[in-house]
Design brief:
Layout lengths: L25 E8 L5 H11 L5 H13 L15 H6 L6 E6 L4 E6 L7 H8 L4 E7 L6 H12 L4 E7 L8 H17 L6 E4 L23 H7 L4 H5 L4 E7 L11 E5 L4 E3 L3 E5 L3 E10 L2 E3 L1 E3 L3 E6 L10 E3 L6 E12 L10 E6 L2 E15 L4 E3 L10 E14 L10 E6 L5 E9 L1
Parallel strand pairs: 1-3, 1-4, 4-5, 5-6
Antiparallel strand pairs: 2-3, 7-8, 7-15, 8-14, 9-13, 10-11, 10-15, 11-12, 11-14, 16-20, 16-22, 17-18, 17-21, 18-19, 18-20, 21-22
Length: 438
């Protein structure tokens, strides 16, 4: 996290605080699709055509391509970083790629397509605001496409793009594209997902990825990059109730700041303003926001995604693990909850397991009292309670907590309705959890 310690001369009242711009120039996205649908090639194309690849990387990939006997630059090599991935020609782990255009910055999670790596897809999609689901134009919508759509629906990813890839192999035929678009839209509608955007592309040759293709005169929509640059982002988080998990308490104790006490953290959702009355949960202490500091000086407000230091008018006991909220829009303080868990460990989960729950900046002990069902990713419905939850499976659980947690349901607040399940013995992450009821 950025250094939030107040800088000399930057008091709350001097100089006059300024409105804080909403952080909306960063899009987190993820890719999904079946094996060999061309995800790595698409990511490589985006990196290459946005000039986000260093000269030495480009030279190295060119050498590797020639060593394999290829005559055209193998774009997939820009993303298949693990040796096992390069040897198998598949993606087996989530890889995060960073690129930018003059309009927007991007963090892209490149996820594997194999069924056995469903947990990786969940990991990549958990923080994404947009998902690009690839479909091979020759194969159309397949079972794994529906599975990935179900994961996006389950995690409530706000925006989904259908990228019908390898259009060059079907002669850029519009009927083929429209048929796949119809299948995909029907599957998405059945899962209750929002409207889709569909783009016919050839990642290998660059058609409609960054530049518009002359081979699709019948397509009048945006290129993939144009859509990524213009899709609305950050609005949902700003519109949600304000949540500010406290990460640490800053007390410089210097001659310039003898009485300074600030609560540092990142606004998880909503907008925090100077003058707001807030309540710290789970303690329940109340106070008023007297200032909001940033490394660049004080501001009048801070929106979701911004790291700031909050000054309060009262010396309340609100340290790491507390959540600041407005009194009229508080999360629920609970000692037990129902949740859906995506199990990430090879060791199965059985009822009675003792774990740690990490929610925001707070960690408490817990017992998984019962498993309440197993999620069918084809229908998004729970089946009968299983005896255990195994790797890559998603299931419902009732959890009893050893301490208090201030939580929202994932359906109402994606940013504060999620948590991690951690192994008490070694600190490994066992599952990603979504609060369904508290």
């Amino acid at each position: 996290m950025a250094d939030l310690t107040p800088r000399p001369g930057k008091q709350v009242s001097e100089p006059m605080p300024r409105p804080c711009k909403q952080v909306s120039g960063l899009l987190r996205l993820t890719t999904a699709g079946s094996v060999d649908d061309g995800k790595s090639t698409l990511v490589g194309r985006l990196l290459h055509d946005t000039q986000s690849i260093l000269a030495d990387q480009l030279a190295a990939v060119d050498r590797a391509t020639r060593a394999r006997g290829g005559s055209q630059l193998d774009l997939a090599l820009f993303t298949d970083g693990l040796r096992a991935e390069r040897e198998q020609g598949i993606t087996i782990d989530v890889a995060y790629r960073y690129f930018a255009t003059p309009t927007r910055k991007f963090i892209l999670a490149d996820c594997p397509g194999h069924v056995q790596y469903t947990r990786n897809t969940v990991t990549g999609a958990s923080t994404a605001e947009l998902a690009v689901v690839l479909v091979d134009a020759r194969n159309g919508v397949v079972e794994q496409t529906r599975r990935h759509l179900a994961v996006m629906a389950f995690l409530r990813v706000p925006h989904v793009v259908l990228a019908v890839n390898k259009m060059d192999l079907v002669g850029f035929a519009e009927p083929t594209f429209r048929g796949i678009e119809s299948q995909f839209t029907a599957a998405a509608s059945a899962l209750g997902m929002p409207e889709m955007v569909s783009v016919p592309i050839s990642a290998l040759h660059g058609d409609n990825v960054v530049t518009r293709s002359e081979s699709t005169p019948w397509y009048h929509g945006p290129t993939l990059l144009e859509h990524l640059e213009t899709v609305p982002i950050g609005r949902e988080a700003v519109a949600e109730p304000m949540r500010f998990p406290v990460q640490l308490v800053l007390r410089p104790r210097t001659a310039d700041y003898p009485d300074y006490r600030g609560l540092a953290g990142q606004v998880a959702s909503g907008v925090l303003e100077r003058g707001d009355e807030v309540v710290a949960l789970p303690s329940g202490a109340r106070s008023t926001v007297t200032g909001i500091d940033t490394p660049d000086g004080p501001v009048l407000q801070a929106a979701a995604g911004q790291s700031v230091t909050v000054l309060l008018g009262d010396e309340i006991d609100a340290g790491r693990g507390e959540v600041l909220a407005r009194p009229e829009q508080t999360p629920r303080v609970v000692t037990e909850l129902d949740a859906d868990l995506c199990w990430l460990s090879e060791q199965p989960l059985r009822p009675g397991a003792r774990v740690l729950i990490k929610h925001g900046t707070r960690t408490v002990g817990a017992i998984v009292a019962a498993l309440t069902g197993r999620l069918d990713l084809d229908t998004l419905r729970h089946r009968e309670p299983p005896a255990m939850l195994q790797l890559n499976e998603i299931g419902g659980a009732h959890i009893r907590l050893a301490g208090l947690l201030a939580v929202d349901s994932y359906a109402s607040n994606r940013h504060t309705g999620g948590f991690l399940v951690i192994d008490t013995a070694n600190g490994n992450t066992l599952a990603a959890g979504l609060v369904t009821a508290a």
